Task: structure prediction
Amino acid sequence: MLSFLRKHKLIYILPLAYGLYNLAFADTSIFWYMYTFALLILMSAAVLFGEIHEEMRTWKSFVYGISAAAAIYLILFAGYHLLQLLGVGSAASTADFLAIFTPASLWHLLLLMFIVVPGEELFWRGFVQQQLKQYVPVSIAVPAASILFGLTLWLADFWPGIFAGTAVGLVLGYLYEKKKSMPALIIAHLLLMILIFIVFPF
Result:
């Protein structure tokens, strides 16, 4: 039994992850504390059980990270306006989501930079995606991990976020498989959050 659980860690770690995300989104007044707590736990699991790669020079990680962030932002921007054009989705729900979860202080930004973003990348790309590769090829593992990542935003009652999270996961997931650089993913994810929440919100 123990050997089975050691080999198939997703069986119990994924429910733990969704439980922690649900707790974080349940009370927006303490969201940043609970979300940070959740990501610290998941990041620890990723470091212990995941496959973390850093096979790219620092300057290349920045180049790929910046390029990926710009590409993902354009994809999300286009998708948002396409949904509005088709009359699907709500601009108000997006505005509400951004108003609630946008970092409101320097403290929030520091948590985002040093815990939240690295934690999400280490867990979803460094752990979940790699674990899925035990069962399915990369061409399936990356989309599956991306959907699982996107579904976390459903717990925040923000269904358009499922598509946004999945799109983010697809780009970063394939980037990780091709370039084996966790720093590039963290740079891309952090820059994307800054663009969406602070610089050019939708």
Q: What stands out?
A: The two ends are 49 Å apart (CA to CA). The mean pLDDT is 91. Residues 36 and 115 are 7 Å apart (CA to CA).
